[in-house]
């Protein structure tokens, strides 16, 4: 019987251009090389969603993917703009940890081998 656990960590320390980010490649100083730069998906738009008419003013997105709004709100708690490119986020796609297990049982010429893998976390 055997088990193993491991984690793979990495971080971009600098870019050759000297910049802090390269959005087209999803490279950001201080983040994992496996980062994703995209909208955080939080469900599907429903007709009765509050502020749907502000966040998605076209009104044609009922049933489409709803993304997280990261903008400001006015004094009444109402979003001040529609969802746009500035709502994209850096999300790490790396699992927190991974592992595997194996076991072998033999009896009178018969062998049973079981192998499996697992991971925890990982992203968005």
Keywords:
124 residues; mainly beta; 3-stranded antiparallel β-sheet; two-stranded antiparallel ribbon; 9 strands
Describe the structure.
By secondary structure, this protein is mainly beta. 3% of the residues lie in helices and 37% in strands. It contains 1 helix and 9 strands; from the N terminus they run E-E-E-E-E-H-E-E-E-E. Strands 1-8-9 form a 3-stranded antiparallel β-sheet, with no helix packed on it. A two-stranded antiparallel ribbon has the order 2-3. The longest helix is centred in the middle third of the chain and has 4 residues, at 52-55. It is elongated, with a radius of gyration of 23 Å. The model has no long low-confidence stretch (mean pLDDT 90).
List the helices and strands and how they pair.
Blueprint: E1 2-6, E2 21-22, E3 27-28, E4 35-38, E5 41-44, H1 52-55, E6 65-67, E7 89-92, E8 97-107, E9 110-120
Antiparallel strand pairs: 1-8, 2-3, 4-7, 5-6, 8-9
Poorly predicted spans:
none
Q: What's the pLDDT, averaged over the residues?
A: 90
Number of contiguous helices: 1
> How big is the Rg?
23 Å
Residues in helices, as a percent range: under 10%
Distance between the termini: 33 Å
Q: What oligomeric arrangement do these chains adopt?
A: single chain
How is the main sheet built? 3 strands, antiparallel
Q: What is the H-and-E element order?
A: EEEEEHEEEE
The fraction of residues in strands falls at 35-45%
Q: What would you call the shape?
A: elongated
**Total beta strand runs:** 9
What's the arrangement of strands in the largest beta sheet? 1-8-9
Structural class, from secondary structure content? mainly beta
């Amino acid at each position: 019987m055997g088990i193993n656990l491991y984690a793979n960590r990495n971080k971009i320390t600098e870019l050759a251009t000297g910049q802090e980010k390269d959005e087209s490649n999803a490279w950001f100083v201080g983040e994992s090389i496996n980062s994703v730069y995209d909208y955080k998906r939080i469900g599907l738009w429903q007709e009765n969603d509050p502020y749907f008419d502000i966040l998605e003013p076209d009104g044609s997105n009922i049933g489409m993917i709803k993304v997280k709004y990261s903008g400001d709100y006015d004094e009444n708690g109402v979003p001040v703009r529609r969802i746009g490119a500035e709502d994209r986020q850096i999300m790490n796609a790396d699992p927190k940890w991974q592992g595997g297990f194996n076991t072998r049982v033999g009896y009178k010429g018969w062998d049973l081998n079981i192998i499996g893998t697992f991971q925890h976390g990982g992203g968005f």
